[in-house]
Give the backbone structure.
Amino acid sequence: MNNSIKSNLHGEINFNNFFMESRGYWKPCKKPKRKEDYVSKTKKFLFTDYPENFSHLKILVQDIASNRVEKYYIQYETDEVSSMYWYGKDHKGFYVIRFSNHWGRVAKCNWQRRTDFNQTAPDAWRACKTYLS
């Protein structure tokens, strides 16, 4: 169990795709002092039964037999920071440092920390590092 992530997709994993269906382990580290390379914002959903009031709605529930849509939603980003990322390279290779308060199932990824902080502070923000492999 080394601290690296692998992609479930075909091809090389890199800074542009490591967050798409990857799995692996992250090791605790210090939060970098420099400006982050990427900031992920919290996403919220607005649900409605009345699609005519909104544009760009996505279908949530559809009755396939009658082809009738029962629920619509729109996803939007808030100003609330969800996680921060720093990219780099050292003697072991390319790495990502993530500063966040949520781990495990993240979007379509499964990112585990090597140390379980949930025993002491379930919602604590932690910096962890992983290598792209």
Remarks:
- The chain has one domain: 4-132.
- DSSP finds no helices and nine strands in the chain.
- Residues 46 and 74 are 5 Å apart (CA to CA).
- The longest strand covers residues 68-90.
